[in-house]
User: Which sequence fits this backbone?
């Protein structure tokens, strides 16, 4: 290949990569304006996504893009908070597969930080018992291991997790058959105990 052509192609590749990086930076900044800096949420109804596995984040974004998960409207929590409220389906609508994978890899490389929140200490032991018996096989290390690709429940915001239980119960969010079989038989008391156990790991 002529040297001039090689240089031109290299320049085009460099410029394209720089634009993609700039675009990704903007997308990440908008994600952080709802999920918090480095994906660490300060708001009980918004999940922390920093440190969650790339599979879990990308899987969620694909579902949102296909409008197969509930998309509740939410205001931006930081940055320009005067922007119109949005929802995850709208956020994911125009993301390409490459965009989704890049976003997921970005957050997977960060550190998960447990939410500082109140919990019922009297329910923690029962919650641990239920988790060990029903949930540990998929949500390993007391639901703290991101490598299981099952989401980090330990230290996640209780309000958010409780809402997901409600979505499962109402059939608004799909779940694996094994999980559905277990979740469907949980009583409200069981859920309270599990959530207290997860919230206790701060």
Assistant:
């Amino acid at each position: 290949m002529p040297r001039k052509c090689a240089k031109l192609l290299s320049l085009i590749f460099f410029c394209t990569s720089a634009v993609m990086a700039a675009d990704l930076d903007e997308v990440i900044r908008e994600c952080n304006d709802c999920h918090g800096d480095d994906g660490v949420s300060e708001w009980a109804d918004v999940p922390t996504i920093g440190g969650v596995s790339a599979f879990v984040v990308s899987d969620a974004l694909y579902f949102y893009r296909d409008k197969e998960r509930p998309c509740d409207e939410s205001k931006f929590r930081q940055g320009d908070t005067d922007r119109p409220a949005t929802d995850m389906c709208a956020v994911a609508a125009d993301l390409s597969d490459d965009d989704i994978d890049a976003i997921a890899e970005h957050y997977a490389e960060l550190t998960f930080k447990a939410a500082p929140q109140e919990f019922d200490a009297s329910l923690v032991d029962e919650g641990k018992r239920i988790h060990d018996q029903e949930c540990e096989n998929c949500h390993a290390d007391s639901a703290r291991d991101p490598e299981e690709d099952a989401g980090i429940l330990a230290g996640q915001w209780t309000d958010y997790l409780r809402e997901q239980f409600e979505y499962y119960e109402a059939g608004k969010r799909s779940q694996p058959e094994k999980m559905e079989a277990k979740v469907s038989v949980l009583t409200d008391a069981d859920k309270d105990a599990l959530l207290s156990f997860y919230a206790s790991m701060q």
In short: The mean pLDDT is 90. Residues 79 and 87 are 16 Å apart (CA to CA). DSSP finds nine helices and no strands in the chain. The domain at 3-108 is CATH 1.10.760.10 (Cytochrome Bc1 Complex; Chain D, domain 2).
